[in-house]
Design goal:
By secondary structure, this protein is mainly beta. The protein has no helices and eight strands. The protein has strands spanning 8-9, 12-13, 31-35, 45-50, 53-58, 68-73, 77-85, 91-100. It is globular.
């Protein structure tokens, strides 16, 4: 199963969370960053940092729905999916790439 928010994808946590500060033990908390990479004043890319690693979700065609999703684990493993919407609106992901950095 592939989902952008609230589900584990192959062991990579992808929960949507508000940015937080470092906790009392000095360990960074989960955070989310938003980017407008093409300068059109629309945040099409979301980067989330979690204890498991980092995820990058991008809306390539500007329709407000994630089209590409990549998860990077702390162990250097990564996986990328293209997200497609079925006629009934349900999304499905097809893994397009995987490997080690």
């Amino acid at each position: 199963m592939i989902a952008v928010d609230g589900f584990a994808v192959g062991g990579f946590l992808t929960e949507a969370m508000e940015p937080q500060d470092v906790d009392d033990t000095g360990v960074p908390s989960d955070s989310t960053d938003f980017f407008d990479l093409d300068g059109d004043s629309y945040y099409e890319t979301t980067v989330r940092h979690t204890d498991a690693g980092m995820t990058v979700a991008t809306d390539i065609d500007g329709d407000g729905v994630t089209d590409k999703f990549t998860a990077f684990g702390r162990d250097g493993q990564y996986r990328s999916w293209e997200i497609f919407r079925e006629a009934n609106g349900i999304g499905r992901g097809e893994m397009t790439e995987s490997g080690e950095l």
